[in-house]
Structure formats: C-alpha cells, structure tokens
Amino acid sequence: MKPGDEQPKLEDLLSNDGPSSAQPADPAQQELAAAVQRMIVNAGQESWDPSDKASLWNNIAGQLVPQHFRYRYLFVKVAAAILVLLAIGAWWLWPRQHSALVQFAQQHRPAENTTDTRLILGQNKSVVVQGKNSSLVYAGSGVTINANNTPIPAEEYNTLIVPYGRRSRVQLEDGTVVFLNAGSRLVYPATFKQHKREVYLEGEGFFDIAPNAAAPFYVYAYGVATEVLGTTFNVSAYPDDARQSVVLVSGSVRLHLQHGLFGKQTRELQPAEMGLLEDDALEVSHVNVNAYTAWKEGRLLNLHTPLKDILKKLTRYYNIKLDLDSLQPGLETFSGDLDLDENLENVLDIICAANSLRYERQGKGFVLKEKD
Q1: Angle, CA 196 vertex, CA 123 and CA 219 arms, to 5°
Q2: DSSP state of 222
Q3: DSSP element (H, E) containing 224
Q4: Can you name the residues that pair with 208 across neighbouring β-strands?
Q5: For residue 338, is pLDDT > 60?
Q6: C-beta neighbour count of 334 within 10 angstroms
Q7: Which of 99-108, 170-179, 281-290 has the lowest average pLDDT?
Q8: Between 48 and 217, residue with greater pLDDT
Q9: Tens digit of pLDDT for each residue in 42-58?
Q10: CB of 347 within 8 A of CB of 322?
Q11: What is the distance between the alpha carbons of residues 205 and 319, in angstroms, rounded to a whole number?
C-alpha cells in the first residue's frame, strides 16, 4: 500500500456486499472489527502477550463460526430444494425424452371404440382386419393381412388395435412375432432403424424377439420399458389395471422403470422371473410362466386366482360384461385350466361348479352369485 492510500475498513472486507460506508450496527461486531484492524495494522510489530493474542483469536473465531454454519446450512437447504425441483422436472419431462415413435403413440390415441380389429396406417388410413384371430405379416414395405395375396403399402408408423373379443398375431419386418391379447394396442414402424428397434404397447402381448445384437429391441409399456436382444417374454400393461407385469420365458431382459421421483430404476430378469410394477415400485419374483402365457394358446391357467381377476380377463376375452356378487369367505378364488375356445357359458359352468356358485344374465352380461 502506497503512503496516503486509504486504509480499507475491516467491515468492508467482511461484508458480503463489498465496501460500504455504513458502520456495523451490532456493537459486538464493531468491537471485533476494531480488534482485527489493530492486528492488521500492527502485523509484524506486535508486543502483545501470547495469552492476549490467544484470547483475541478465540473471540474472533467465536464470532465467525456461527455465521459460517448459517451460510452452510442455507446452502444445504437451497441445494436440496434444487435437487427436488430437478427430480420433479425430470419426472414430468421423461415422456418428452422418448423416441419419435413413443411420442407418436402417446399423441395419436384412437378416440372411437370398435368391435373389429383395425390397422391404422400413419395417422389416418384405417383398415378393418377380419376374424376373431387375425394375422399380419410385414415384409419389405408392405403388410399381408390374413394371408391375402395382395400386400398393403405400410406407412412409417403403424397402429394395430385389437378390441375385446379379438386376438391377433403380428410378424414384424425383422422377424419378431408378437401375439396381442384382447383389448390391446401396438404401435410400431413398418421398418426398424438400423441400430434400434422400438414398439409401444397398451394391453397385453407375448413377444418372440428375433435376435440382433447390433439392434436392441425396446418395448415401451405403461410405466416400464423392456430392453432385450433376443428372447421371449410376456408384457401385461392395461391402462385400467393397477399392476403391470413382465414375465420372462427365455433369454434375459432389462427393465427400466420410467416413473418415480428420482428418475429411472433398472432391474434385470432371469427366466421364470416376473417384474411386477405397482405404485411406482418394481418387485421381482419367481413364477410359473405358463400361468402368464397360456392365453396365446387359448387357455387360462389359475392357481388360487381371485375370481374378480378371472372375470376381468374373461370380459376382455369374450367381450361380455361379467360381475361378481358379494361372496362368503373361501369362495373368492378359483384354481383350474379354462379352455377359452369353449363358449362363455361352458366356462362359467366350470367356475361355478368348483365354487358352489351360479350365474344369471343381467342385461348384456352375467353376474356370479352364491347358490340359494
């Protein structure tokens, strides 16, 4: 410092706002500032007793440390708030980060109901697919429906809608085969990109993925993305179900949980394992895979299965409303192998005989009740 230069005031050096002409309002802070300034001015020529120096330093440290902790506590609170906001923002923005195909599937939902299986090419062109169990095969840039000789030119994005009472089999252009259960919607490209294969599913589908290590296959469903290379598995993701599941038959898959406050979770499945998503939590357990895949063969396997769950599946399969009256304890479940190629009345006869129940028609549907 040159002679004549103005000595900086300590309160200016300690202030968060820089130099200021205002004196500290707190008398204790004024005394502290004066003491430290004397120490700076006399640096190198002190004649104080060591005990006095120690006392002065303890006074300084006692004044500074609480303020330091206050600032650090404030920083922690601000950082925590920013972390929560970023996590919430990531959760809300996650759907926007998906591929163009997933965005297309979420933005173009069919408004009208239908009793026929329909193939929607692009956004507008709709083709009725005849038959209770239909078949579609993609090859090149076209699709053959129910083994007809004339392929239909396919658009970039295709949507197959399978209503209640119908099922469908789709062979995609890479050789992957998908069986769609009643009440399902599958969105997929006519041809896959070179390094990634993606489809979007609402409802239930059984997938037999054509192996291609250079192009992983992704199934985006409600809440879960399933990543595979070559395997067979079943996905159940109906929008009106409280739980969604992925059951692995062979190979291996990696599940990506899309919801949750702190971003994605990832779990890998081994054969005969099921990933069950409920309330944004993913649980993995060993299961009998036949109970989850027999529907594609026209069967419904049950082991102490709640009747309300069975009737919900039968409603989708036969497209007839089924309700359950209040039952006594012990009558709410059913075990057995149901042949879905039988008419509905025969299936209900089997369920009722095993549970001492009866059914009666109400309107366009049936209600199961206890026997009188």
Answers
A1: 65
A2: S
A3: strand 224-228
A4: 177, 232
A5: yes
A6: 22
A7: 99-108
A8: 217
A9: 554 445 555 555 665 56
A10: no
A11: 18
Answer whether residue 313 shows pLDDT above 90. Answer: yes
Say what the pLDDT of residue 297 is: 92
Return all residues near 266 (Cβ < 8 A) that are at least 6 apart: 254, 255, 256, 257
Structure tokens at 115: 């009793």
CA separation for the pair 304, 289 (Å, rounded): 15
Closest CA to 94 of 215, 253, 256: 256
pLDDT of residue 177 exceeding 50: yes
Can you give the C-alpha Rg of the chain in angstroms?
34
pLDDT given for residue 74 in this prediction: 52
Query: Six-digit token pair at 309?
Result: 């769950």
Helix 307-318 vs helix 344-355: angle between axes, to the nearest 10 degrees?
Answer: 170
Q: What's the one-letter identity of residue 217?
A: F
Other C-beta atoms lying within 10 Å of the C-beta of residue 52: 11
What gap in Å lies between CA 283 and CA 276, rounded to an integer?
A: 5
Cβ atoms < 10 Å from Cβ of 198? 22
Nearest C-alpha neighbor of 181 from the set 197, 161, 156, 210: 161
Spatial distance between the Cα atoms of 261 and 91, rounded to a whole number of angstroms: 6
